[in-house]
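Dear all,

This email documents one entry for the complex benchmark we are building for the journal club exercise. For each entry we list the sequence lines for every component of the assembly. Then comes the predicted three-dimensional structure of the complex as a token string, followed by one or two observations. Please use this as the template for your own entries, and keep the labels exactly as they appear.
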Amino acid sequence: MSDAPRLSDPGAIVMSDLSDLSDLSDLSDLSARGRHSLPNALELQGICKTFGPVRANDNISLAVRPGEVHSILGENGAGKTTLMRIIAGVITPDSGTISLGGQPVNIRDPLHASELGIQMVHQHFALIDTLTVTENLYLARLRSVYRRLDLQELRRDIQELSETHRLPVEPDALVANLSVGSQQRVEIARSLLLQADVLILDEPTSVLTPHETSDLFRLIRRLTATGVSIIFISHKLSEVMEISDRISVLRDGRYITTIEGDKATAENLSEAMVGRPIVERSFVTGDSNIQRQDEPALAVREVTTSDDSDSVKLQTVSLEVYPGEILGIAGVDGNGQSELIDVLLGHRKPTEGSVELSGEGHPTGRSGVAHIPDDRLAKGLIPNMTIWQNLLLRRADDSRFLTKRGVVRKESARTATSQDLEAFGLKREVADLLPSMLSGGMQQRVLLARELTGAPSVVIAAQPTRGLDIEGTQFVRTTLDRLRAEGAAILLVSTELDEILALADRIAVMFRGQVIGEMTNRDADLVRLGLLMGGEAA
Amino acid sequence: MTPTTVEDRRSRRRTTAHLWTTFGPAAVGVVAGFFLIIIVGGLLMVISGISPLEGFDGLWKGSFGSTIGFGSALLRSTPVILTGLGVAVAYRAGVFNVGAEGQLFIGGLCGTIGALVAPGPAALNIALALIAGFLGGALWAGLPGYLKAYRGVNEIISTVLFNFVAIQVVAYAVNGPLEEAGSVSPQSERLPYGIPGLIPNTSANYGFVLAVLLTAFIWWYTTRTHQGLRMRAVGGNPLAARYVGVNDRRSIVWAMLISGGLAGLGGAVEVLGLHHRLFPGFSPGFGFEGLIAAILASGNAIATMVFAVLIGGLRSGGEEMQRNTGAPIAFVFIIQGLIILVAAGSRTRYRRSAVPGQDSAAAHDAGPYDAKLLESPESMDA
């Protein structure tokens, strides 16, 4: 294997030298041909793309072989999304060439990419809820495949496709009635109808239960067996290692290395992603943490909410969180987690039941409750206000920010903000910036600084590491662990089981507005949690 | 850290950039509008057989080029400032108050009633009349505000419709209960006192000073008080504001009360300062001119005032031009329209180029300040 030494040694490639790179790409190209006697399904040569001062893609070259699962791994801002958008024709690169099946191509737009056999399944599906599966696919730009398309013919084709690929898709089902996993299969079916040679899956597992994920992986295997190449984008190392034939790592817009799937380890992948070894912190969970007092700091007692069309109805939800513990709420997104949080914050009134904070009544004033929202921009930060003003909104009683009459003490507020930010690893000057100037990871730190400064007794953390890179995730988890040690009662809502298992002392699983299972971390395992998340009470 | 560190300079530069984002497009609009006035205006005058020199002379003398013109410009801009401020306050809270004209009418009506009912002396009478005007406008805007906040009624539609109602209410009042005995035209009795003049031998009155003071107050309120910042938070992102603990509904109603109050005050000042009586056509559209000023200023109070003075000056200059040369005042409206088009156009273009990658992958992938603004990695596991 001529390219093996290169692949197993992340340090061997230095991207500063352009000629080196093209030589190596040629080598890998040759070796691929030698082995498969087929040209690469997709080959990128020296792709560059800059946005203003940001070099989103800096001379990236890589090759995807026919019928392989090729993962693209990288932290936020590493350039994965930009690269995929270039391949899918959404944006054009500043320089570099793209070849398909050995032929250089100039991808003009997404439609052109689709005609060339490049299909992409986005994180957010492009399906219309009120139409059936067949009708949705009819709307897809299928003209390149069908001369004249009628619904009956398309319906038969969908059924046939569904059988040949063992891809369960019901052509007459209304999309609104489909689970997220089925909707994803509809998207994949669309790609296959469009005759995908290269199928890009952007974070496909982020919305799936463990069970649905393993279904998807089996489907991916069947597709690659028919010669389709899959580009798999994910930040979950375990999944990437499980499914990939090869893994290419990007960092800071540059290509770092490609590792064979069977040689990949969490250590060498994360080191390639971050650029230095990462020590995975593990946290002590379980009963030993909990200083069981008489009163829980947060108690939800048989809360039921009203029935309305655009939210999940909570049904007799009961939970207790004691000081010094983390209660994890597991479950697939959209099973009542956000409704529960709204009830806890007093934004939604339960029709029955009550919420008690440290033995008190309903939390109308929420001075002691810190809330890390699941969507930083939509629910967290005010876009037209600077960071210090954003912090000020949560500091109504803080004399560093406001006089007694509610007049802003600007300089003092900026200094106080800077201090709070520094405690969360941000530089002082962030105080004067607007949220849009910060990356997701920094926005999250700002939110942590806003909510967690000054020991809060109750913390509600919703998806606190969503979209964060390894370091950002680590930081958030360490912070939550520290607060637990300081005696905070923490409710951690997460769709990532890894996160729940790493942090929570006890785990409750939500399904369709109900808590259908609760267990200690010690008794929990992926299989049991996965079944509960799918609604099968164990 | 001394005040002249790199960070400080950088943040100052960022502040400059911020100012440019806010006012740049509008400033471009004003400058381009100036040239448009010269070129298009001159062309129009030539076509209508008027000497451009005379026309521009009238425009200038009637606005900022003579004492009388200047006084008239201040007079004309006073209600525009006040309605503009009102629209700006609502704008900051994310509410689009298109009903400033109606609130101005109700303010004029309530101001008139106040002045006729309230006792003397002059200062007390005028103060009470102005307060009545403020309250009238506030209530007239508060209802659409309530409907938006608690019933989800679109405020653009409700405030526009309220304009028609307000205008008819005033027409009814001066034809009915408030009608001056023995008068041929529909109008109220003459008010006992008027707002005193500001510049001798001109029509400007102290209403302008009030408008300037209120501009300063609103600027301070929206940028330097907790209440004001909470209101702006609702305008920036109502959902996030709610999660921060702001009562977004109450903020919307509150903003509309202030907004309508200011517009109503504009009506009262117009009646008490200039006409000294109420009649149906006492506003030639000040509310809409205020709306234009506030939008050009992106809701910034001080910029709203500047644009309002320009708009008021343009109108008073147009009137002078009409008297001098016979060029119709509609000519001024054409120019006003052109300025707005240019300002709106430059704003759109600027937005598109200002934030590289806003719509592209870069914004999604990385914040430009990312690496520089994180503390060193060692300090993270604090």
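Observations: Residues 1-35, 359-366 of chain A have pLDDT under 50 and may be disordered. Residues 179 and 321 of chain A are 31 Å apart (CA to CA).
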